[in-house]
Specification:
This protein is of the alpha/beta class. The protein has ten helices and eleven strands.
Length: 284
């Protein structure tokens, strides 16, 4: 018995007639009729009531259609699981709660695993933990230390937010730092894809109107030419060529300072040992 026979049987049940099923399957009616006859021979039972110019499923056929549906679904699941397993053996998936930790982490992982495909995405902390436990991620970056015995957690580094201000802005002279309340209510530039920082900014500055930008290049151009405030960070400043005449003023609120942790499943710790060693040496 072949899976194609079961697919053809379910098509006959779905479309009601051999001619319609044959058209949907892109085959001829005589070929489909012979396929059904061979299936009956395999099962050694009749599946159809045959009348002149009419073919209908009998009770055997109706049961066979139900069973065929379950077999085909299991076959599809098998294909998906085997393909997913193969991808997992050739792919290192990294999830992060923010973009900055990925800037150094992705090249580092690529350096140690040149023959692997490296993929990354940003998710919430809860989704990252679920993905780690389910095997969707080999490595995740979180803002909280994880005490789960099935996971290995190592400190990665810190990110401190700054206000990026044009030199003529009244707060540009506050080199000792500013509080978020000092700027709440202004218009600010904000990139849309900054992970948890986006929700954080909207929560910490409820009266601020954010002009969201989707494209990083456009965003950087606006930062240089606009008179509106924006966020920067110590990590961003290390990885950029500067923001022209802008002044970077530290934000004093403790919530603007986060510590990142790299987390993996305990069983993957040995595989990722070179990455964790380099993180311990270099940090973020």
């Amino acid at each position: 018995m072949e899976l194609s026979q079961l697919e053809h049987l379910t098509a006959v049940a779905q479309y009601g007639t051999l001619s319609k099923a044959a058209e949907a399957l892109n085959t001829s009616q005589p070929v489909l009729s012979r396929t059904m006859q061979r299936l009956e021979e395999e099962l050694q039972v009749s599946l159809f009531d045959r009348q002149k110019n009419k073919l209908t499923l009998n009770q055997n056929g109706e049961l066979a259609v139900q069973c065929a549906g379950r077999v085909l679904e299991e076959a599809r699941r098998m294909v998906e699981q085997v393909r997913a397993f193969d991808r997992s053996r050739r792919t290192i998936s990294i999830g992060s709660c923010a973009p900055a930790p990925l800037w150094n982490l992705l090249p580092l992982v690529t350096q140690f695993f040149p023959d692997m495909t490296i993929s990354s995405e940003m998710k919430s902390g809860a989704a990252l933990l679920d993905g780690l436990r389910d095997g969707a991620y080999k490595l995740a970056v979180l803002t909280e230390e994880v005490g789960d015995g099935g996971l290995y957690c190592q400190r990665y580094g810190e990110e401190r937010l700054y206000l990026s201000l044009p030199s003529a802005h009244p707060l540009a002279n506050f080199q000792g730092g500013v509080w978020l309340k000092d700027i709440d209510g202004e218009r600010m530039l904000l990139h849309a894809n900054i992970g948890f920082w986006r929700e954080w900014a909207q929560r910490m500055l409820p009266s601020t109107y954010f002009l969201l930008q989707q494209n990083f290049e456009d965003f950087n151009e606006l930062i240089i030419s606009s008179v509106l405030p924006a966020f920067s960070s110590n990590v961003m400043m290390r990885n950029s060529n500067g923001n022209g005449p802008r002044v970077q003023v530290p934000i004093l609120d403790p919530e603007a300072h986060v510590t990142y942790y790299c987390v993996c499943r305990a069983e993957d710790r040995r595989l990722l040992a070179p990455v964790f060693h380099e993180i311990a040496e270099r940090g973020l």
